[in-house]
Records
---
Amino acid sequence: MAAPALVISGGGSKGAFAVGVTNFIRERFPEKEHTILLGTSTGALIAPLVAVGQLALVERIYTSVRTEDIITKGNVVSRLLGSTSLFDARPLARLIDNTWTPALFQQLMASQKRVYVTTVCMQSGEVVYWGNHDAPALNGFTVYKVRDRDEWIRAVMASACQPVFMPPIELRSSDGTPRQYFDGGLREYIAVEMAIALDATEIHAVALSPAQEAPENKRYTSAFGILEKTIDRFSDDVGLNDLRVPLLINSALRRIGDAKRKLKEKGVSQAVINACFKAAPDDPFQDKEEIPIHLIRPEAHLGGGPGGLTFDPTEMRGMLRKGYERAQAYFAAPPPTDPFIV
Amino acid sequence: MFCHTLLRLLVASQCLGLHSIRISAQATTPTEFPKGWRFPLELSQGPTPNTGTYAGWLSVGAMRTVLPGHLRAGVLLAPGLFGSQATGIGGARLAWRVRTFTTTMGSWGNLQLAAEHLWSTQGTALVGGGLGFEAGEIILAGLKAYLPYTTTGTGPVWLQFSIGLHLCRGKASPESEDPFSNP
């Protein structure tokens, strides 16, 4: 059975780009309704709402919210010394609480679509997915089906909370075993591997940073600026690895498929081909076929300030338009996917 | 006289471009002078022409933000020295934020106008005010001028420089840090 997946990465206000891409996919491929939806960070705010048919609401949010609707700034020194984060994220918590009405949450839980948001546990370091269906532990990821609406909105919030900037969110915690969760992008920037593990048959993956950035012509003169750039570089690296492995596997599957087809064209019988490609039971390529992975990402840096934490409606409307146009260009002439140039 | 002095200081700060506050326009949570109590511990000292050479006091205050982002009011108590005479001091203080120092991540300090009226057990009362600086909601510094007066008249102005810190800056509890608590 076809199971198209929509996977959206983290990126704060740059999520507007993903909304533009999703808008285009909905218009262009109405028949391909995503049945697997995965979101990390800002993607956790978008993908689940898309799953319950609220794309228009998502678009409204991503073209109207301002930074003060997401975070409250305070005295930096005081917060560094006395708080768990630089910013107070109560406005975002209110937004999530108001958006996920009990009725919408019921709709999500009743849906056959599999919807998950990505978090990372501070105490264990595990990547933990929270969603509306049980799932076995996949590829070392822990998967929890949420128990109630409160747990769901906390999981969405946790997925969106960038460490240091925003506070950790406690989930299934007790005095003896505190469990604080953060933005899944810390370890899983874009959950393509999870989509493959859930047997997606086609993946629309939206990454919110460009594959390559033009070199900057500026000198870094402050420790803070260097720290900020270093965090960006680490994030880019996590994202690169998240994509490289699945694309590499996909590339191997494509080559195996090509080899089988060529052998068949040369007159080799199917039984011989099957025997030649028969491998051990733990062979990751056994009985697997190449999955079309459509990776759509911006051509250049989208803006949105450090960590994507600047929410400017005008800038976000521009990102949304860029997302739509980028998806349009991608599907007009899909580029070859090479795992080494993601 | 006190009101007149305060008014002049406010007008002066306006002229200096320090007073950039528009109360009605401030919809967001203020980064400086947030709600709640602060307990400043300050050492104040300076020359005093009419008591010999020196006056100083170590005060503990309790200040409450009465207009978030703008105004704090409170009281302070201190043991002190007026010349060679030990004295007890108590009084009231108003602090009006006139400038916030910011970075892209938030603020880091503020400049404030303070007005005080202090009474001493020695018999001299002080009325005055000046500029205060606060960094990281911890470190305090101030430069103030006081007019001493007794029942018999006023004396020459006292200048006081102060340094200090806010006490009781504890860690926030996990419950109060949770963004879903009291959202």
---
Amino acid sequence: MVRLFEYQGKNLLRTAGISVPEGAVASTLDEVAEVARKLSRPVVIKAQVLVTGRFKAGGIKFASSPEEAKEAAKDILGKEIKGMRAEKVLVEEKLDIESEFFLSITVSDSRKVKGPVVLFSTAGGIDIEVVAEEKPEKISIVNVDYLRGFQHQDAYNMVSKLVSQPHLIAVISDIAYKLYDLFVKLDAYTVEINPLVLTKDGRLIAADCRITLDDNSVFRHPEFGIEIPRDMLRPPTDLEKIAWKIEERDYRGTCYFVQLVPNIEEIKGGGYIAFHGIGGGASMLAADALLRKGLKLATYVDTSGNPTASKVYRAIKTMFSLPGIEGYCLMGAVMANQEQWYHGYAIVKALREEAKYRPSFPVLILIAGNKEYETHRIIMEGLKDISLKLELYGREHIYDVEYLAEKVIKLVEEYREEKRKGIYRVETPVTETKIKEQTSRVLSFETETGKVTIDIDKCIAPACGFACVKADRWYGRGCLKIEDGKVSLAGDSNQLKRLCNECLACEVECELHGGRAIKVELPLYGLEEFRRKHGVPI
Amino acid sequence: MAIIIDEKTRVLVQGITGRTGEFATRLMVEYNTKVIAGVTPGRGGEKVWGVPVYNTVKEAIEQHGPVDLSVTFVPGPLVKDAVMEALEAGIKTIVMPVERVPLHDILAIIAKSREKGARIIGPGSLGIISPGKALCGWIGGAKEFADEAFKPGRVGVISRSGGQTSTVSWLVCREGLGISTAVHTGTEMVLGTTAAEYLELFEKDPETDLVVMFGEIGGVMEIEVAEVIREGKYTKPFVIYIAGRALPTGIRFSHASAIIQRRGDSAEEKERALREVGAYVVDDPRELAKTAAKILRK
């Protein structure tokens, strides 16, 4: 879920016709004083961070003059509140509270509900779960039929169970009705007002709110400018932003990327490995075991749902962009249903590129399931002439994650020891000669997320036995063919774009058979720049 | 018997001409699933692995007669229309293998399925297999692998992870047992059919003696399983492993449903609730199959 800041939520409530306290958001101390001056009454200063329990953590303070407000904001602005930096504060009128209510709409995954739930309580301002346990009579709940919606009458019935004054019933049910409307418009997971305050002068005001949006719907809401729709209690890292671009428009399988250690300096400190799992269950299970064994994981990455090789390749390249990692571990602790050879080719292409600058780098791979043996062959063949500490495991070790964790620890220790002794001379990065621009001797076509180029001058067919065409028949979808004893394209650019599944097999097999003619160019969405910035060879 | 799908189930494939649709259709056809037709708007008249393609669900039914189950290989943002079309056409079981379906689309789909008395499997479900009879979705991945991981037998398998559905089943088969039906619940926050509901179906299936489940942190699914056991709606032995115990809270790990955020959804709390009702809770996934074997050989 994507969490919105309180001030964003309140702006949305206001446009939905629900009253919020007067005030404004401020990023500097002068702005704080300015807002307080305009309000010219006692104010509350609230840290804009995505955590609950701000008051106890010192993220909410009161002030009765602009000077006091400025002073109070000093302790909040730029400070960490429960681990999140408060870049902004919300400065609002302090409300004179008569009573407090709770109003929320959320989605229940319970077998009995599987839909929106509207919850109203006359015990606002405190944790609703405590109310539910201690004073259930103060809660009124409506399960909504999504197709029918939440009607005025439903809101009225819900509120009137707990409130007796007719005027109050009318106003609160109107707010509930508007809130539901907002919930639908936002594709929200939760919209919550707590507390909904009745002031001494009889106004009903949303004093605080919490809105979370659905990850899978953010594409419908460009207005929020959400960089990554992921559940995290911290801002996304640069690398996570890049990784999201792999996923954003490419629905072929999934790539889930979390940088478990946001601080790159900490990773550079040593001993961290890049963790990569296949499938949610396997990744959780394996990460769990590795952490318990004391391994330091820099990343939690999961590529599954039958992804293309290009997606997996990009995921690996992203992990290897982290400066200072000292190992790569692909734990496919799963009898995967997807054809694993796409992971195989992605691994081969990525590691052939990365190993150049990391001789003897520790790599442990567990990959099992559908097309397991073929995949192992692809990996062993593809990496046989490459300097790596490579260990490859299959189904017989499917859940032996602890055993494999020990192997990883050993490999990483060896590598660190060797690095310390300076055994390996690291090649200086050389920029590869670019494939020349389009001539009659170069065949090329666009793929869904990249471009395939075949330099006929470098093509050694038939000496290679038409390795690329064979690979394409087997792993691809027939983009290449043999014509007059030469490699050629099997369709026009539109057909090829639709056909190509970015399996990367043609490029890898060409190289393994002694050629250098094929290049599958896959844009990496800013990784080059990231690597340059952090001194990681490209 | 088995649950939800068997050799008589008449299957329709929506989105049959896409990359994954085509891949899965080949698998289903090879497994002898009764795939009677496919649908992709604008591609009517084509054939995919011998299966005729139509422009609409209605057209496919008019040509081939009633459909029991439709499996939808349509990208997440677009899948709602496809499922609604299938529900309107009267299909009573819809399997949704795609992930990244917008939440409110899921809510609309589930509400519609209630109105129509239909069952939704997923979204994000790899599929369902009754070994030796039929499979739908892309569970198994290839005939030879499906045959290896899923042998016919009397153990039901429920998994919150797609890949683990096959892994657990494979391990069960290695213990010399077999599978009645294995199903992947799906990975989204809200699912059409929950683990507790599958358990109730397994209870009624005379060919299932025991159920094993691969559970996860987050959500209420395992707690509800404990509820149906306590209520006596499921009385056969039940073995479960819950993944993600050492993971930090508040971060989503792959599956939308696997975020720990509420009371009662950590591994420890779930395990306690399940132990209380007499479920066999194992703390190593390797023990799932071994425990099942021990129980059945008693």
